[in-house]
Amino acid sequence: MYLFYCPDIETKQTLSEEESGHCVRVLRYSVGDEILITDGKGSTYTARITNPHPKHCDFEILSRETQERHHAFHLHIAIAPTKNIERMEWAIEKCVEIGVDEITPLLCRFSERKQLRTDRLEKIILSAAKQSLTPFLPVLHELTPYDEFVREQAKLKQQNFIAHCYKDEKRFLKDEIERGRDVLVLIGPEGDFSEKEVADALALGFIPVSLGNSRLRTETAAVVACHTAVLINE
Question: Is residue 24 located within the same domain as residue 108?
Fold first, then answer.
């Protein structure tokens, strides 16, 4: 069954114009058909269509089910956007499918992309979440300066990791993650973090890690980090 998204479902039993169009025009749902809806906060609803309008499809709620998260920790991936935006979009889509909870695009010293359209990325996140039938919609932040971000994250009670390619002493991420603890992994731009950015993160208590023996593209590294954290916590 296809999953629809309605964040304010408890107060308004009407799908958005985009969701209504997909429901009525594309999928051809009609009066009396049952659909599955999520609020993106952990609840799924079985509903019946009462007015199949292609711009404001109305429904009535039949039942509600609240689900627990698939993993008992919070996973935050902070990644410097790639020059080719399609690679960034692919990485975000796959991280959502795997189980990321929060995503922060980073503006780093060697970032080749200085601006980012988060509205398009929001749509990709929503599409990936619905495709995966997950009732939890990951949080996407605006493009954030690196220095500001690491200072704020260092204050939180979580495991903070920085994945970089310098030949410093590092252990594999899979060997450093503690089950059940919240995790943040920093993924640098295509030119890697600057030496100063790495040093600043280490001074704030971030743990330097490797994602494997191969040198990975930025988007691949994000997916590998996400999958590693989720797998360790399964």
Answer: no
CA atoms within 13 A on the CB side of 129: 26
Question: Would you say 191 and 112 are in contact if contact means Cβ atoms under 8 Å apart?
Answer: yes
Helix ranges, 132-217 (H): 146-153, 173-176, 195-203
Question: In terms of domains, do 57 and 92 share one?
Answer: no
**CA separation for the pair 15, 27 (Å, rounded):** 14
Digit-coded pLDDT (tens) for 130-145: 988 888 999 999 999 9
Q: Single out the residue in 48, 66, 84 at which a domain terminates.
A: 66
Express each pLDDT in 185-228 by its tens digit.
999 999 899 999 999 999 999 999 999 888 899 999 999 999 99
What are the pLDDT digits (tens) for 60-71? 999 999 987 777
Tell me the whole-structure pTM to 2 decimals: 0.90
Cβ(96)–Cβ(222) under 8 Å? no
1 contacts: CB under 8 Å, gap ≥ 6: 35, 36
Range of the domain at 186: 75-232
- Is there a single domain that holds both residue 204 and residue 224? yes
- In whole angstroms, what is the distance from residue 195 CA to residue 70 CA? 36
